[in-house]
Amino acid sequence: MELLIILSVAISLLAVHVDGRSSCVRITKSHPCQQFYFHFDNEGNTFKNQSNVFNVTAKLSNSKRESFEAFFCVVFYPPCGASVDYLLPNIRTPHVVPCQEFCTSTWKLWRRMFIKKKIPQDSAWPWGLRCESLPRKDCIKRSAYGTWKYLHKHSKDDNVIPILRDDDDEIDDKPPRLTSEQIIPRRYDVIDQGNSKLFRGWADVQGTGAANDYCRVIGKRKKQFLACALAGSVGQDHRYVSRMGFDAGLKDTWYMRDANNDGRDDYCRCVGNSTVSRISCMKAERDGFRSSPLVGGSQYSFDLIGSDGCFGQEVNPFTGL
Known about the structure:
- By secondary structure, the chain is of the alpha+beta class.
- The strands form 4 sheets. It has a 4-stranded antiparallel beta sheet, with no helix packed on it.
- α3 packs across α5.
- The chain is elongated and about 65 Å long.
- InterPro entries: Frizzled_dom, Frizzled_dom_sf.
């Protein structure tokens, strides 16, 4: 049924004819991207099944709708052929992909519209579309004045790492910079290596800027907990832990990464079932994970925006991608 809905949306949006020399397709006036350019790559991309976002933004004011459509058009229907020359004159063989900052500004606007209930509460940011995975140079963006630009190099804030957050619209934190003398070495004397079928690996829960803390799941089922042997610590006691019986998440969906931009790697995983699922993260604190005896709180500390429907999506345990 979902596939039929997606197909019907695509058919209603598009009336095209193909340029025989390539996969470049001409867009007709019925397509929302026609206001920006005239051809798109028919090969599409991994996000094209999320093109129903145009139905969500269609009800917004003209300026807001145009801002969303400019970004989503480049993502879902990337320009090609003569349209690239039209958007980016005098740029030889540009890499037609949206810039990270273009994505971040669009996501901030999406969040504001969602909070103001201008966007339906059951509408999610497209699954799999993560701003931090997009390039910061050799990419395209659109200014507030409606002009298209091609970025050849990073901005001056090269060390800023934008992360999709669910607790703040501002993204301006910077990771700490340490010298080799300041980095605390890893521990290689840990006896209990943890459950090999669940997460185990190096992370940075201390916020030092180096993934030198060894984290793994100890025990099984109701007695399992996440424990990290911190760099610089001694002994075999489990001090930096989660609650007993914590939810490890659906198989192969777990990973550790700084998901809220506070410098510490959080434990994130997909929770739920085939009908309703989301990525929920257990926040790393100074004295342990949220939900642990010393910290308290919920193991479901915060959910990632746009992660609805994560069921069945396997990820890299160290990047979440």
